[in-house]
Design a protein that fits this description.
The chain is α+β, with helices and mostly antiparallel strands and about 60 residues long. It has one domain. The protein contains one helix and three strands. A three-stranded antiparallel β-sheet has the order 1-3-2, with helices on one face. The N and C termini lie far apart (about 25 Å). Bound molecules: zinc ion. This is CxxH/CxxC protein. InterPro entries: YyzF.
Length: about 60
């Protein structure tokens, strides 16, 4: 999906902020073992997805 944002450990806070600005909603965050960070060349640790559910993700303790 186009709205997915991949990020490494270092960039998860930035990705979270950008996601909030772009989508005006909280992302659903999943751990991933493949993919590249959208902000650097590291392997991604997380993917932020737009979710159909309203309300914050359960994984907000970033
Ligand atoms: Zn990164």
């Amino acid at each position: 999906m186009l709205n997915n944002k991949y990020c490494c450990e270092k960039h998860k806070n930035k990705a979270f902020d950008d996601f909030l600005k772009e989508h005006d909603t909280f992302p659903y965050i999943e751990k991933v073992s493949s993919g590249k960070c959208n902000y650097c060349d590291d392997d991604a640790s997380f993917v932020l997805k737009i979710t159909k559910q309203m309300g914050p993700s359960e994984l907000l303790d970033l």
